[in-house]
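Can't paste images in this forum, so I'm doing it all in text. The chain is below; anyone willing to post the predicted C-alpha cells underneath?
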Amino acid sequence: MTQHNHPVRVAIVGAGNIAETSHMPAIQAQDGQAVAVAVVDVDHERATAFAARWGIPAVHDDLQQMLAAVRPDLVIVCTPPVAHREAIVTCLDAGVWVWCEKPPTLSVAEYDAISAHEREGGPYVSYVFQHRFGSSARALREHIRTGALGAPLVGICHTLWYRDAAYFDVPWRGKWQTEGGGPTMGHGIHQMDLMLALMGEWTEVRAAMGTLARDVETEDVSMAMVRFASGAMVSMVNSLLSPRETSYLRFDFPEATVELTHLYGYDNSHWQWTPAPHRAGDTATDLGAPLDNDASSHTAQLRVLLQALREGRRPEASGDDGRRVLAFVAALYESAITGRTVTPDMLTRDNPFYYTMNGDADIATGERTNKEQIGV
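Text version of the structure:
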C-alpha cells in the first residue's frame, strides 16, 4: 500500500455506540489522511441514520456486498465480540486491512485461526488497545527498554469500574459464549494490555475470581498475582462492582514510582512521577516524563495504524503483539477456575482454555474438531 497518496478509505462495520463516540471522531481527526466511505449494520435503518449523521455515502446491511461494491482500504469492526471472527476473516480474504474492537476474539484458538488469513505485507488485522499510544506510556516504555529508571520491581494494575444490573440486559453480555468473560476479558483488558506492553513477558499467574453481585454466567470480579521475566511482581484486580470508578497502574523502579490514575483515557496530567528518596530533588521531567502530550485515544492509535498500512508493514497490537494479552487472560481464567499456577507454555492445543476462556470441555472439544477439519 506504499503507493497510497489519497486518503485511506475506511468502512465501519457495526453502527453502535463505540463507532459513534470513538471511531468516527478518530477518523475525522486524521487531518485528511482517512475518510469514511461506507457503513455496514444488520439493522439497515440504524446504518442509514448513522451515515446521515456522519456524511457517509454508502450504506449496506451485508459485509461481503459492501466489500465488493466499495473496496475500502481499511475496515473497522465494531460488532459484539461473538461476531468479530467472521467479519475479520471476510475482510482479510478480500484483501482488506482490519482494525477490530476489543476483546480481539473469544479465544486464543480464534485469534490463531484468524492470523492464518493474514499475508506478508498485508492485509493485517490490528486490535483496539489505545492506552498504549499516549505520550506518557510511550515514554515509560522507552525508559523500561533502556533501564533509565532501573528494572521494574513492583506493579499494580487495577480496573475498578461499576456496571449495574441493567447493563447486563443486553443479551450478549455476561455470557462466556458471546462475551468471552466478565470484567477481566471485556474491561480490564485495556489496563492489562498496557501493563504487559510495558513490562514485557509474564512467566506465571495465580488468580481467583467470583460472581458476587450480578446475575451473570461470568465473573464480576477477579484478582491475580503475576510474575514477569524481569522478576517483577504485579497485583491485578478487575471489578464491575466498584462505585468509585478508577483505572490505576503503578510501576515501582529503583529510581522512581510512576503512576497512572484515570478512567477511560488519559493525558500527561493523569500521570505522577515520584523520585526515589535518593533523587528527592528531581522533577517529573528529570525522571523522564515527556514534554509532548498526546492523549491515549482511538485517534492516536489510528494514526499509527494508517502509517503502517501505507508502508505495508505489520502494525502494533497485531500478530503476537495483539495476542499477548488474550493469552494472558486465558491463563488468568485457567488459574482462577482450576486453582493452579499457570505459565505461558501451558496454553497448548490440548488445553481446553486455548479454545474457551472458561475451559468448557464440550465447547473446547467441538472447537478443536472444527479447527482440525479446516487445517488450523
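The chain has a mean pLDDT of 95. Residues 219 and 255 are 37 Å apart (CA to CA).
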